Amino acid sequence: MLKDTIAAISTPLGEGGISVIRVSGDDSIPLVDRVFHSKIRLPDAATHTVHYGHIVEPGTTEKLEEVLVTVMKNPRSFTMEDVVEVSCHGGIVSVKKVLDLLLLQGIRLAEPGEFTKRAFLNGRIDLTQAEAVIDLIRAKSDRAFKVALKQVEGKLSKEIKLLRHQLVELMAHVEVNIDYPEHDVEEMTNVLIRDKCTLVKTEIERLLHTAQQGKILREGIETAIVGRPNVGKSSLLNELAQENRAIVTDIPGTTRDVIEEFVNVGGIPLKLLDTAGIRETTDIVERIGVERSKSALAEADLILLVLNSNEELQMDELVMMKQLAEKQTIVILNKIDLPRRIDLDQVRAYFSDERIVELSLLENRGVDSLEKAISSIFFEGKLESADLTYVSNVRHISLLKQALKSLQDALDANADYVPIDMIQIDIRAAWEQLGEIIGDSVGESLIDQIFTQFCLGK
Ligand code: GDP
Ligand code: ZN
């Protein structure tokens, strides 16, 4: 059943130069060949070759579309099945016509994520890699993209596999001990359990430590921009949005509204809260008593408080600073191209120097220091050199935590001299939980759930 032949448009719908239809399955080559007119018959084509020709409805001579067809024979393809890719250049209408014609030949329209699911089920990629494909499609910044890419390459899986290997070795030792329970062997086993479990536990803790940063890269830092009217909030928003436009470009599946909700500051995605509200309501400070704006601030991971350095601080701004001092706030002193009238000491009373950024949005000066300030809050300033294996997937985090707990149980039991075959159960549980991350022991329903998150054609 699984090997029936499926097809979908795998490039984003829209204008664009070329659209690619991907076909995968046992009969993909002969079925595409039915509608493909060329000097060569596709079943005779060598693997990984490209062929020029036309799509023609069987029984007619009308050329529907001029195409390039790529043949990739199993197992050297993304799905490890026979794959044919048809590149059309005639815009969306003719691509859809070609797809419809293929579907008439007995090819089935692929479900969302089905190509990737097949790659997983056929052993081409593991589950973390498949999930990373979702992240790639949805990546909201350069950096999130790179993190996802590493995961596609299998970096996280490799680390998980190493940890599991440690546990397998340990279990083997323990098993021997259960079979030959002599006193001095048992003591050695106790030491071994303690050392190995501690080692694996430390490593899992390190992975979990990256989770917060991973989440930020994946979902963005929820950010609110606040300040009195005319301080430059909209200018800031425009400046940030402008930089952003260059970044999210050719990644398939990213939609307009997603792009507009997110801005990038040096590769760190900021998710702007209530952007429309900021655009229209320039007086959030004045509405400080209003519950709604309060809760918007409570929700935020990061608050950008914009002040006009050309003016003295107003009473409501002082109130605001007092309230925000406890939160993750960056104070932006805008308009430094104008003479300074603000009393910096009043700001310093609430915020350390790293949290104060001076810039001019008019002259486009100092915006990079905002980037540094954000990076120092969320990445302890180490973002550039940081290892790119971030754990960012909620499912992975939850399983890592479970494995951590199992290992702790094993360590506790070991310290209490609980019989070793009981401890073995905990170690085994940790091994299985880690296995679930890479898809070693996951059920059908979870697999379906993961793959339906894809968009069509992936
Ligand atoms: P908002 O009301 O807080 O959104 O402020 P705007 O972004 O609309 O800016 C209010 C005014 O200040 C506009 O006329 C901007 O051109 C001006 N402005 C913004 N940034 C600067 C700056 O850095 N220097 C100067 N001199 N003017 C600026
Ligand atoms: Zn897509």
UniProtKB/TrEMBL annotation:
Binding-site residues, GTP: 230-235, 249-255, 274-277
Enzyme Commission (EC) number: 3.6.-.-
Ranges for domain TrmE-type G: 220-379
Broad enzyme group: hydrolase
UniProt cofactor note: Binds 1 potassium ion per subunit.
Pfam families per UniProt: MMR_HSR1, MnmE_helical, TrmE_N
Cofactor needs: K(+)
CDD domains reported for this sequence: trmE, TrmE_N
Keywords: Cytoplasm, GTP-binding, Hydrolase, Magnesium, Metal-binding, Nucleotide-binding, Potassium, tRNA processing
Compartments, as annotated in UniProt: Cytoplasm
UniProt function note: Exhibits a very high intrinsic GTPase hydrolysis rate. Involved in the addition of a carboxymethylaminomethyl (cmnm) group at the wobble position (U34) of certain tRNAs, forming tRNA-cmnm(5)s(2)U34.
Subunit structure: Homodimer. Heterotetramer of two MnmE and two MnmG subunits.
Protein family according to the UniProt entry: Belongs to the TRAFAC class TrmE-Era-EngA-EngB-Septin-like GTPase superfamily. TrmE GTPase family.
Name assigned to this protein: tRNA modification GTPase MnmE
Species for this entry: Paenibacillus hexagrammi
